[in-house]
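Aim 2, interim progress: modelling of the D-serine-bound target.
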Amino acid sequence: MLLSEYDKITANALNEELARQQEGLEMIPSENFVSPAVLEALGSIATNKYSEGYPGMRYYGGCEIIDRIENLARDRAKELFGVDHVNVQAASGCAANIAVMFALLEPGDTLMGMNLFYGGHMTHGLKVNFSGRYYNSVQYTSTKDGLLDFQQMADLAEEHKPKLIIVGATAYPRIIDWQKAREVADSVGAFLLADTSHISGLIVSGDHPSPVGIADVITTTTHKTLRGPRGAMIMANGNPSRPLKPAKVLKENIPTLVDRAIIPGIQGGPHNHQTAAIAVALKEALEPGFKEYGHQIVLNAKALATELTGMGYDLVTGGTDNHLMVVDLTNKNTSGKQGEWALERAGITVNKNTVPFEPRTPYDPSGIRLGTPALTTRGMKEEEMKQIGAWINEAIKAQDNDEALEAIRKEVKLLTDRFPLYPGLKY
Ligand code: DSN
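Predicted structure of the complex, ligand included:
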């Protein structure tokens, strides 16, 4: 039975969400739109199969074809990023990072990562996260200008001697200097984890330097700038032992340690429909057109940043070099929460975000975070960014004026109608 016949409530909700995605401007920088081919693989019968283990070493029968799919995803990722080993089974970014910690650390060991409220991530050692409760977490922040503070990182490393340093961000608009992070890690003999979740698509397009050959281990989600399904990958150089034997915590054993951390460490059966969709997304990322896509994400972000700065908006670090920007709304007499709400009613989806040295609270912070990956997937360019910048300004100024916000929403709809998303799709 078709979904629309069997469960109208769910089908209708999906149709409403489809309309929301089609009619609005999706500017949360960690979101994107997968291609119809990725969507098809994600909704495929591969979800029916259990396959705990790895290709050629499964705990279940009937895995021959799933092995082919997983090997395809792994091989494409290896080619795309130029690494020896890729694990494609982590359910998502948090699980990928937890697996790396489980692989390299014992409970109580010291790790160091960027504080979430300065642009880092929960799994980089936030005290209320697994990474901050089961390990002794030391958090670095930023310079007063919002830039990665390598001097502070080096000083904290010297003082606390972390076994693992995590570098990577969810709200950092500038290029990350992996080499400087490597120097800090080497100064105390720490492992270096590069969390490239936000920027892996830009690494593929050459718009951000790659940490391959610098970091000991690299994680990425697959659904952000990489434009795949929800999922994650863990990459390292070297090859895992086969069969996966217990291994000492040494750099050369990272592929083995990571594979063992995923299963039997923290996960069971891989999500094979997700692996199939990752394989398709990686084929797309290997196409020459993906490089153009990455370049355009950055051109669009820069165009939007210029527009907003020109209208007096205060951007953390003064602008952007990548796919996102964090806008401090303090000088516009509003907060991140109010700004997010006003923009949502105007058909523009963003998320409230803390700014470095945040004086407010994470639930009602000073800023909003905006990004261009999803709009770029729809085909929008600098001209549209200029118009969108003007609408953002109007919506922020309108605050609670429903009529003004509704008028912007209508204009937004006229624009999004020109950039169709999933034509013909209906649940
Ligand atoms: N939730 C992701 C983001 O929005 O950046 C990070 O996990």
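Residues 30, 93, 121, 170 surround D-serine (CB under 6 Å). Residues 288-417 form a domain with the Aspartate Aminotransferase, domain 1 fold (CATH 3.90.1150.10).
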